[in-house]
Amino acid sequence: MPSLLTQTAWLFLLAIPIACVAWTVTHEEIFREPREYCIERSHNCKTIWARKFFYLFTCEYCFSHYVTIAAVAITGYKLLLDDWRGYFIAGFALVWIANLYMSLHALIRTSLKAEGLEAKLEEKKLEKES
Fold it and tell me: Which residue ranges make up each domain of the chain?
């Protein structure tokens, strides 16, 4: 079993690509059309199972669980315990850290967008005054 320091490093590093994939699929322009299809299907499918299936592609938190399962399967990463419980703990810890990263990303992005809009408003105000 790797040291706790090594496991912790893996936790914070492995959460980065998980967050990246989950955010990209659920928010970025490159996946807009499939995401819009999934949004429509998540509202209009007849069965609850189908609606929930399509919804998971529109929610970064939900989708991050599936990306995490794939990442843990590919890497064999375990946290704290060296049996199946280590996979279980690792999965939830990775989801939590990945979602923390995505929340920080959204917060920074929103702040930058707000600053940009404020700068444009100030610029227009100065143009009107002169």
Answer: 4-98
